[in-house]
Amino acid sequence: MNENLTEIVCIIDRSTSIRTSNLIDSTIEGFNSLLAKQKQDPGEAKMTVILFDGDNYNPQSAYEIRYDGERLELIEELSRDNFRTKGMTALYDGIGRTIDMIKSRQLNTPNEDRPSKTIVAIITDGEENSSVEYKKNTVKTMIETMEKEYGWTFLFLGAGIDAMTESRSLGMSVNNSLSYSNTSSGTKDAFIKMSAVMSRARGMSTQAYYASKGSLMLDINEETDQNNNDNQNNQ
Fold first, then answer.
1. Element at 200 (helix H, strand E)
2. pLDDT digits 0-9 by tens, 55-71
3. CATH for 2-234, among 3.40.190.170, 3.60.10.10, 3.40.50.410, 2.160.10.10?
4. pLDDT tens for residues 198-227?
5. DSSP character at residue 215
6. pTM for the whole structure
7. How far apart are CA 160 and CA 126, in angstroms?
8. Any bridge partners for residue 157, and if so which?
9. Which one of 13, 70, 84, 218 is separated from 227 by 20 to 30 angstroms, measured CA to CA?
């Protein structure tokens, strides 16, 4: 494997609720700030960007591959022209299809060109309600396999939902989950924190990464809990 190469995967919810919650611009700005930060960081990186929603009548239209393992410098920003909300939340289909796609590509890549770290970030503002291709148990098994046998790391960020419970039910480490407020500021802050975790992981040696990959977001969760406690005490 290429010890200096990381693949960053962003699976981003673009369902209708993003629009009704007035989170389109903050999602775009949040992703663009993450992209800019990762481009500035040292080290090699590729990026996969997936936009998903849910459409029971035309599920193929609910999954858009904007970039599939492209060099980071070739990734362009999101905008209102290319980030258009619609449909429901086919969360399991979005995750399952992405895992299958990247796993197949990496296995067909020469070993010396494969990334030593693959970090998959899932960003959603709602719970599953419309997947047609993948079941929850199937996706859970896929995630556990990629974590244990291939060394991938999954980050789960949920707006207005219990991200820890959802991530646990999908086989992810609860220490790599983050619940954030379903607001513009909450969304932007979530992307900032997610980018910080990615930067930290990219800067680690492979050995250090594998030793700590199950708790990359732990300090962020502790910081969030402390802030919540402080706010409650001030009320």
1. helix 184-203
2. 988 888 999 999 999 99
3. 3.40.50.410
4. 999 999 999 999 999 999 998 776 665 555
5. G
6. 0.94
7. 8
8. 123, 178
9. 13
